[in-house]
Amino acid sequence: MSGAGLIGTGLAPAEEFDLALVDLDGVAYRGHEPIDGAAEGLAEARARGMRLVFVTNNASREPEAVAEQLTGLRIPTSRDEVMTAAQAAAELLATRVAPGERVLVVGGAGLSTAVRAKGYEIVASADDEPVAVVQGFAPELGWAQLAEAAYAVQRGAWHVASNLDLSLPTARGYAPGNGSLVGAVVAATGVQPASAGKPAPTMYRLAVERAGAQRPLVVGDRLDTDLAGARSGGMVGLHVLTGVSSARDDVLAAPGERPHLIGADLLALLVPHPVPAPDAGWWVCRGAAARVVDGGLELRGGGEDPVDLVRAACAAAWASADAGSPVDPATVPDLPAS
Length: 338
Prior knowledge:
Elements: H1 13-16, E1 19-22, E2 29-30, E3 33-34, H2 38-47, E4 51-56, H3 63-72, E5 82-84, H4 85-93, E6 102-106, H5 109-117, E7 121-123, E8 132-135, H6 143-154, E9 158-161, E10 167-170, E11 173-176, H7 178-189, E12 194-195, H8 202-211, E13 216-220, H9 223-232, E14 236-240, H10 247-251, E15 261-263, E16 277-279, E17 282-285, E18 288-293, E19 296-300, H11 306-322
Parallel strand pairs: 1-4, 1-13, 4-5, 6-7, 6-8, 8-9, 9-12, 13-14, 14-15
Antiparallel strand pairs: 2-3, 10-11, 16-17, 17-18, 18-19
């Protein structure tokens, strides 16, 4: 793996990596709607020998429910192929809290199941004197549950969040995520929680251990969670441009959030990925070229694939930033994904 830049693959990722750690919202589906190319890309990746584990920061649902939804979208999935932030949060609890202790769960059924499976007594009130509060997203959460969490944290309970995503994609747009709800508790208490979800690599490592994989690939749509988690976990990350983070975001990405590979959608698992190379002051990728001059990004050509221009722009902007001359964001246009 290269330092903080893009890499190339001689073969399709489905043939170079033995396991794909695939995010859900914005990658495999959007809300309850399918994403073009997702079912086809994942089916063919499996046919080429790549195993799949769906890794999600959503802690509200049971793995069985996630598997059922994927199967209904023509992505056949078993519960053992799903790793949720609820499971990771329960594992994080176990690092400090002994089985049998009382834990206040603020979240959905998936979180309660995962915490109970680790041997904890689940309570619903701060007056039950829980030693920890574990908080995950659920659409039915309201002020009363957030207030109980705040009361318990103020009394010394350890606050564990399943994830800190500020937003989540739905069929109607982006809605407040668990991080926004956690923020309400933080605002009331002044206490920052521990987080089990991405960008912490906990879930990725659990999934890799479960699968016994040797060369995993992280596939996600968010730079600040999926791809940052890949970087922090020492894994290769593929950014698909079907969700939250855009191609323009790739160009402006901080080193710790940069993808190693970029694709329009999950069909990117099925083709080799070129790597940009320097050429006479430009970074060139199959005919697409980019350079940074006096802080301004300049683009030329289109390449064999629209993503080639994104790759060239990333290489030029990242090289300039790493040399101490960040690109002016005003010169970075919205780049096509397909």
